[in-house]
Amino acid sequence: MTELTGPLVVVANRLPVSRGPDGWTASSGGLVTAMRPVVEQAGGAWIGWDDDPDGVPDHVEGLACELLPVSLTKAQVRGYYHGLANRTLWPLFHDLIVHPVIDRRWWRTYEEANQRFADRIAEVVEEGDRPPLVWIQDYHLLLLPAMVRSRLPDVPIGFFLHTPFPPPELFARLPWRDQILQGMLAADAIGFHTPQYRDNFVRSVQQLFNGIAVTGDQLNLPDGRRVRAVDHPISIDAAEFGDLAVSGPTEADLAELREQFAGRKVFLGVDRLDYTKGIRHRLQSIELLLERNPELRGKLAFVQIAVPSRDDVKEYRDLRTSVETEVGRINGRFTEPGHDVPVHYLYRAVPRESLAAYYRLADVMCVTPLKDGMNLVAKEFVTVQAAADGDGVLLLSEFCGTSIEFGDDAVRTNPFDVESQSYLMESALEIDEADRIERIQRMAARVRDHDVYRWVTDELDGIQRASAQP
Ligand code: ADQ
What we know:
Layout lengths: L7 E7 L2 E4 L2 E4 L3 H13 L1 E6 L16 E5 L3 H20 L10 H24 L5 E5 L6 H8 L5 E4 L7 H4 L5 H9 L3 E4 L2 H14 L4 E3 L2 E3 L5 E6 L6 H8 L2 H13 L4 E8 L6 H14 L7 E8 L6 H21 L8 E5 L4 H10 L2 E4 L8 H12 L5 E5 L3 H6 L4 E3 L4 H11 L4 H17 L2 H17 L2
Parallel strand pairs: 1-4, 1-6, 4-5, 6-7, 7-8, 8-11, 12-13, 12-15, 13-14, 15-16, 16-17
Antiparallel strand pairs: 2-3, 9-10, 10-11
Helix pairs in contact: 2-3, 3-4, 4-6, 8-13, 9-12, 10-11, 10-15, 13-16
The chain binds adenosine-5'-diphosphate-glucose.
């Protein structure tokens, strides 16, 4: 585990807590779990937008970290979050799957909101007795490293981007491209999921600014500062998912599912309902598969679990309508009276045990995003399958970070080619059992070796080393 010389201040758009029927609890995501031991040892705080009308508590049980909310006005939330972050940067960083909207008012609120986060960080540093390490997360806060650096020149600052970084010719379309790169370059270390995103970033910097020399992973800036740009693939808490896979509640849920889907091959999709995830293309491939193979009708079920996401953004509401239309059309086409439907569509988040039960049930897990920074669902699936000696097949898009790590152990698909994808779905059912088991075990071993604890350690060590260099 990383030994920090001072406390850790994590800064992200959201705080790592959620309010359920029993009050506030720590979020169950891998990032929070992995950071818990570091924060407990070093002390720390988490700064994030306070998006609850009644406010967020400053501590929750089981999370040894102070919660420091940043308040934003309604107009700031509209412009910064729903606007620039989710309708400009998100589509641009995902290779223009939908058109990014360019709106100068949103940009101004994005600057204002980033400034609000910077104010909060400055307060924390002024109140503390030791300088912290500031670790900033994701595309909502691209300007923040520079805002912090100008007020606190000596504080170690790290930035991690959870989305892809686009090729320079796409990034160059952004009117605020220079400000964004300058914002990021004020960090000591900038982390990306893959070497490709890192290289895209470095090439953008070289094309848009003069006088920056690159040696290895180091960028030497004209003012003498050095910045490290690194690739650190994020991951999951593999041990925890392994335990979850064979826990009592998972086994109980699985027994019910097995009964429900007896005699059928199960294809599964688990995603936030986002246009980057390739859900519509996946449904079209399933439709082609059923069209071509009448003998599979009644013998194949496709379960799509979609978590509601960003439903105050128009593109997401439109996506929901078109996915639901597609599901209805396929079921209308292939359901026989008195028999079950081929597509089971759940528009909700499911509890973790239930998610693990679906992962165990699946014969073919379809992780087919059009573009995805990493994709943790694929890592969760192989981990759960391997822990229960499963033999499921992973159908994995070429266009996600996970694909680089799993190579040919997954069946690799180009989701834009829906017809080929439907043939790959068919061929996934023909891989022999011993091969399927070996593939799952190899992919799970990779996740175990590169779990989320390793990601946190690599990131924090990298930031400390980069900030310590002369
Ligand atoms: P996301 O786009 O949210 O993350 P992903 O990495 O797949 O995508 O993580 C989704 C998480 O939500 C998984 O842990 C999954 O278990 C959970 N989840 C999905 N559907 C669910 C459901 N119906 N019910 C319950 N839980 C569900 C962004 C980037 C990714 C990057 C991560 C981390 O877009 O590319 O991998 O951040 O950096």
